[in-house]
Design a protein that fits this description.
The complex is a heterodimer of chains A (114) and B (114).
Chain A: E1 5-7, E2 10-14, E3 19-24, E4 30-38, E5 45-50, E6 56-59, E7 62-67, E8 72-77, E9 86-94, E10 103-104, E11 108-113
Parallel strand pairs in A: 2-11
Antiparallel strand pairs in A: 1-3, 3-8, 4-5, 4-9, 6-7, 7-8, 9-10, 9-11
Chain B: E1 5-7, E2 10-13, E3 19-24, E4 31-37, E5 44-50, E6 53-56, E7 65-69, E8 75-79, E9 88-95, E10 104-105, E11 109-113
Parallel strand pairs in B: 2-11
Antiparallel strand pairs in B: 1-3, 3-8, 4-5, 4-9, 5-6, 7-8, 9-10, 9-11
The chains are: A mainly beta (114), B mainly beta (114).
Chain lengths: 114, 114
């Protein structure tokens, strides 16, 4: 069973604050890492697909970095807004027979207060 | 592009009853997944289809869960008989190319077994 850990479990910030969360995963057999945002009563939405060590991806105020050698990824949100409130999930894909299967962490639940 | 459609959105049943969930993926997406998310945990893969063939059902509790994908399009997931521990959100996802785009998820079915 693959272990994907996310921290913190929950986070409460004020509007305008910048924040970041961590996803750690097995560094061996790495193939890809996905980040998803899941707002209440909506579908999880793909934010980033990351495959290369040192990858940095950006989408508006949200960015992510990847270190496959040490097995972690950071997600950053600059100037958080109330609409950023959601659960942020990371998911690991390993090589081999389970290629394509996502192994999810438990998520970081972000609440941004106006 | 229409998203992944799932129904029903919510379902409450008594233990030992049967329940079925339906998923219509995005047109042209050959790969379809069913994930189970128990409260406080990350989503866990139950079954993966490629067209109408099963690729991975190693995590599916086959004594009570079954799934099929008719003609490589719609899919149904059935639980018979349901247990209290089956209370969860059941997510369907499809993918055109998860290496680049990630998965597209439906909004899920929240099942409560009482």
């Amino acid at each position: 069973i693959l272990n994907v850990e996310q921290s913190p479990q929950s986070l409460h910030v004020q509007e305008g604050d910048s924040t970041n969360f961590t996803c750690s995963f097995p560094s061996s057999n790495f193939y890809a890492l996905h980040w998803y945002r899941w707002e209440t009563a909506k579908s999880p939405e793909a934010l980033f697909v990351m495959t290369l060590n040192g990858d940095e991806k950006k989408k508006g105020r949200i960015s992510a970095t990847l270190n496959t050698k040490e097995g972690y990824s950071y997600l950053y949100i600059k100037g958080s807004q109330p609409e950023d409130s959601a659960t942020y999930l990371c998911a690991f894909i390993g090589r081999g027979s389970t290629l394509g299967r996502l192994y999810f962490g438990r998520g970081t639940q972000l609440t941004v207060w106006p | 592009e229409a998203g992944v459609a799932q129904s029903p959105r919510y379902k409450i049943i008594e233990k030992r009853q049967s329940v079925a969930f339906w998923c219509n993926p995005i047109s042209g997406h050959a790969t379809l997944y069913w994930y189970q998310q128990i409260l406080g945990q990350g989503p866990k893969l139950l079954i993966q289809f490629q067209n109408n063939g099963v690729v991975d059902d190693s995590q599916l509790p086959k004594d009570r869960f079954s799934a099929e994908r008719l003609k490589g399009v719609d899919s149904t997931l059935k639980i018979q008989p349901a247990k209290l521990e089956d209370s969860a959100v059941y997510l369907c996802a499809s993918s055109l190319g998860w290496r680049v785009y990630g998965y597209t998820f439906g909004s899920g079915t929240r099942l409560t077994v009482v």
